[in-house]
Design goal:
133 residues; alpha+beta; 41% helix
């Protein structure tokens, strides 16, 4: 697990209910692991946005982690991007989605490094990828 640089972000993770915290930490690990494999994600910033842990890459779209009213935890993307639509086209019916803004989870075992790593990579390089469309 990557150590926290911002105590405010760590405090938000600590305040999550255990079922949310475990899954959100697993997604956080996948975000950092995926970012390490991509050329346009450095420096990636971990900060709070809308009170949730958020991940910002210089040429990417913001990712957020947190609880959700319909799931234990969720992976949020900017709703005005094509990210969830593209994801659902490549992996139709694989996950529960909240419109064009989130992938919903009830258990960390639902996280798939290949599938969700693909979405993370697309988000972290969104502005690079969109220029090539």
């Amino acid at each position: 697990m990557m150590p926290f640089k911002d105590p405010a972000v760590e405090a938000v993770f600590d305040a999550f209910p255990q079922s949310t915290r475990k899954g959100a930490l697993a997604l956080r690990d996948l975000i950092f692991e995926t970012a390490q494999t991509l050329p346009d994600t450095h420096p990636m910033q971990e900060a709070l946005r809308w009170g949730q842990p958020a991940y910002l890459a210089p040429k990417g779209s913001t990712l957020r982690l947190g609880g959700h009213k319909s799931a234990k935890f969720a992976f949020f993307v900017h709703c005005q991007t094509r990210l969830i639509g593209d994801y659902n086209s490549v992996f139709p019916g694989e996950d529960r989605l909240d419109g064009n803004r989130a992938v919903l989870f009830n258990h960390p075992g639902q996280i798939d490094a290949n599938r969700h790593g693909w979405l993370i990579a697309r988000a972290l390089t969104y502005h690079v990828t969109e220029k090539t469309r």
